[in-house]
Amino acid sequence: MAKKLLLVGGGHSNALVLKHWCRHPLADVELTLVSDVRQTPYSGMLPGYLAGFYSYGESHIDLAPLCASAGAIFVQDKAIAVNPEQNLLTTAEGRQLSFDCLSLDIGSTPFIDDIVGAEYGIPAKPVPQFLTAWLALLENIDQNRPKKVTLAIAGGGAGGVELAFNLQARLAKLFPAMGLDMQIWQRGAILLPHHSVQGRKLIERLLVKQNIAVLLNHPVTSIEPEFSPDDNPLTCYKLWSNDHWQSVNAVFLVTQASPAPWLAQSGLSLDSRGFVSVKPTLQSYSHGHIFAAGDVANMIDHPRPKAGVFAVRQGKPLFENLQHYLSHQTLKTFVPQSKYLSLLGTRDGRAIALWGPWASYGHCWWRLKDYIDRQFMAGFSA
């Protein structure tokens, strides 16, 4: 009887498992992917898509033909529960899918539970809902042609900074005569707290140059609708940080990552924030037949930031260990790099390069980033 391998979520790691499976399939294994979306975004190109540098197709992986090439079943549905004792996955549409081995790669969403009125904000994830809200905002601006738009980004990490640069680029290109006030609201006293002093100083200079305001020690505590003045036909909101507020037209939430709430009832071993605790083999600490990668996983022995680069790096070792597990072979350990090159695209065909304490900025880094990202995506169409 064929063993059942269930890939849950179409994140980078699981997509790479499918890519490698196309070349090296395993006999007597029934492979299934469950994903709530068919088009899964590639995080490296998503900011460039927002800025207008890439098309939707260039920045997304179509999971259906990828599954077909791998001989896998594609189920477009959302996972809502897993029972690792009974080996059952439950989906939003009521499916009960059995498995012998499962790989979880469902990503994360911004933590917004401490923001009153968070439903008025636009979370950066899930990406499809974010893109829908962003395109609706662009259409609203196009129809009403306000003299000025004020946008706020809650979160001063790398994701929030890159989003600010690229949203500004898109709006400046589409509406060059419109005034734009772009703001980053950062909870803490410094921007990009997980990056070097040199990197922070470089990015702060670029933000000043691009007229992007940074409000430090400004945690977003509340969002509430506000009556729109006559000179601004767009919807307005009061954005509060404790007892201080400003009027904005949209709030993008790029706060600390949080896991899917249903994991808390899964019985899997979780860390203090609710992410799946995994070994260096990417196996769950509590259930060896459950693997996890990408944002949903926390490598307890080698903790790393929630970044797409690590999900990509986990792809091949995840593929190898899934096959080794199903073949009763010894699993390999994976140690993620402690330093990694971070490339943040900006609005002008240049990029910021960050490596440990070192930082640089220029056209060459954009060309490198573009090359790396296009090579990555080309691997899914070969």
From TrEMBL:
Coiled-coil residue windows: none
Q: Which InterPro entries match?
A: FAD/NAD-bd_sf, FAD/NAD-binding_dom, NADH-Q_oxidoreductase, Pyridine_nucleo_diS_OxRdtase_N
Which GO BP terms, alphabetically?
A: aerobic electron transport chain
Is Iron-sulfur found in the keyword set? no
Which family does the entry's similarity section mention?
A: Belongs to the NADH dehydrogenase family.
Q: Which Pfam families match?
A: Pyr_redox_2
From the Swiss-Prot or TrEMBL record, give the protein name. Slr1591 protein
Q: Which UniProt keywords apply?
A: FAD, Flavoprotein, Oxidoreductase
Q: Which residues form the FAD/NAD(P)-binding domain?
A: 5-315
A molecular function annotated in GO for this UniProt entry is:
NAD(P)H dehydrogenase (quinone) activity
Cofactors demanded by this protein: FAD
